[in-house]
TrEMBL record:
GO terms for molecular function: ADP binding. This is NB-ARC domain-containing protein. Keywords: Coiled coil, Plant defense. SUPFAM superfamilies: P-loop containing nucleoside triphosphate hydrolases (SSF52540).
Length: 238
């Protein structure tokens, strides 16, 4: 346990250094921490809480089987703290320009003037602005203007000040694959190589943790050809 505690102390020092660098960088306008850095900081705090609970279990424990179980838990935590150390040391940079996350306008076709007059476009906009609506499905035959309509909604959202923290656009491949979609969403959020795990469930948990930190956001998934579970991707609305 003492070995684990020493490693946690080192991790806390690393955490403090990164927080100090972030505080200094945030004094410059238009800068904010990368999402992968925020995820790392959240994971560090969660890890420290877990170690604290584990330490409380160890104190006064004399049962042989319980001691063996706790010993295995400690060994796992030592491996975990080493991974967190490495991840914290691998950051090339901590900050990103505020206006580079989800701020790229989607190009519109020349005939969109007609599309903007469609009643469906305003209906979609009203749903997006409705706080009681959390998910919207836009469907229809190919070529009727679904993507063009959503590009208009996307661009209009970027101009809407104060309503949403971020707006993300992700085009879903026809050859649907959950792992690829998770990576595409992470790239749209500028998470870099945050999703290193190959396990879909773990990747979904990491992605959900990042999205959960954002108070209000819009994620537009374009060109979806088949039904899939949002929970399996990590974009649960719960």
């Amino acid at each position: 346990m003492q070995n684990l505690k020493r490693k946690v102390e080192y991790l806390s020092g690393q955490e403090n250094d990164i927080n100090s660098q972030i505080s200094n960088a945030e004094r410059r306008p238009g800068k904010r921490p990368k999402k992968e850095v925020e995820v790392w900081l959240t994971n560090v705090q969660r890890f420290k809480d877990d170690v604290q609970r584990l330490e409380q279990e160890v104190v006064g424990e004399t049962n042989v089987s319980s001691c063996m179980r706790l010993g295995k838990d400690i060994a796992k935590k030592i491996l975990e703290v080493q991974e967190l150390h490495k991840k914290g040391s691998d950051f090339n940079s901590l900050m990103i320009d505020e206006d580079t996350t989800g701020r790229l306008l989607q190009p519109l076709t020349k005939d969109f003037v007609k599309c903007t007059k469609a009643r469906n476009t305003e209906n979609i906009w009203e749903c997006v602005m409705n706080d009681d609506v959390t998910k919207i499905g836009v469907y229809g035959m190919g070529g009727v203007g679904k993507t063009t309509t959503m590009k208009y909604i996307h661009n209009r959202l970027l101009e809407e000040k104060g309503k949403f923290d971020n707006v993300y656009w992700v085009t879903v491949s026809k050859a649907f694959d959950i792992t690829n979609l998770q990576s595409d969403i992470a790239n749209a959020m500028n998470l870099g190589n945050c999703l290193n795990d190959k396990d879909e469930t773990k990747r979904a948990s990491e992605l959900h943790a990042v999205l959960d930190q954002q108070k209000r956001y819009v994620l537009i998934l374009d060109d979806v050809w088949e039904r899939f579970d949002l929970d399996s991707v990590g974009t649960s609305l719960s």
